[in-house]
Specification:
The protein has helices spanning 2-8, 11-43, 57-84, 87-119, 127-148, 152-166, 169-179, 199-231, 236-247. The chain has 248 residues and is an all-alpha fold. Helix 4 (87-119) packs antiparallel against helix 8 (199-231). The relative contact order is 0.16.
Length: 248
């Protein structure tokens, strides 16, 4: 376990590992998202209350879940960077923060599109919606803070602290529908209970969730590879890799 942990801290090892894994992730992502979209949009039955408007759930739920999960992963990486000084932890945060921001925006947008026919309005200052908006601002803050500090080590420490402070917002997002009286419906999927939807809707949703997880994995690896090349551009192995690519 510790050997694997130390390998993750090596930019060259991680770059080679990501290069080998990315094609598998890409093809798996394409297959799962294609199957999930066709299944959910064309073959899943309409909801007895919301009709066909509920079908946006096949996009909204995966991106909303991943928007929160990515920030938790950033906070974990921030703690690792502060404790073990592992520079790959900061590389991960730098690479994944824009992905998390994009997914958070997409979650807010699809939620607004879903909310108009369901609630009769695009936006309300609902506890869930407001805390998700705060999450988007936290992502923007992480990216802005990194860009504002020229010293890379100082920027990494500051960003790590911000991610750890901001992670307090995640349980607020998750439990806001239970703690306060909100318009937003409770969670569609809970680990402690059976799903609140029939299998004809639940199974394509699971396929989409898995597909989006693989998509985020591919994006994270691709952006981390680019970040590694930028940070390690003066090392011999990067220069050799660039020369090999130019030769091909």
């Amino acid at each position: 376990m510790w050997q694997w942990f130390h390998k993750l801290g090596s930019p060259k090892w991680f770059f080679d590992f990501a290069t080998r894994l990315m094609p598998w992730l890409a093809w798996s992502t394409l297959v799962l998202l294609a199957v999930g979209l066709v299944w959910g949009l064309l073959f899943a039955p309409p909801d007895y209350q919301q009709g066909n408007s509920y079908r946006i759930i096949f996009i909204h739920v995966p991106v909303a879940y991943l928007a929160q999960s990515i920030y938790v992963a950033m906070a974990v990486a921030g703690a690792v960077g502060l404790v073990w000084r592992m520079k790959m932890a900061d590389t991960f945060i730098a690479a994944i923060a824009p992905v998390g921001a994009a997914l958070t925006f997409l979650a807010l947008f699809t939620g607004a599109v879903w909310g108009k026919p369901t609630w009769g309005t695009w936006w309300v200052w609902d506890a869930r919606l407001t805390s998700m908006l705060l999450l988007l601002f936290l992502y923007f803050g992480v990216m802005a803070l990194r860009a504002a500090i020229e010293d890379r080590e100082a920027a990494a420490r500051s960003v790590a602290v911000l991610t750890l402070i901001g992670v307090v917002n995640i349980p607020i997002i998750k439990y806001s529908v239970d703690w306060w009286n909100t318009l937003h419906q409770p969670a569609s999927i809970k680990l402690t209970s059976a799903p609140a939807m029939p299998p004809e809707m639940f199974l394509p949703l699971l396929v989409m969730i898995l597909g989006f997880h693989l998509l985020v994995g591919w994006l994270a690896l691709a952006r981390m590879r680019n970040e590694i090349l930028e940070r390690e551009r003066r090392t011999r192995w990067v220069q050799r890799w660039i020369a090999q690519q130019a030769g091909e």
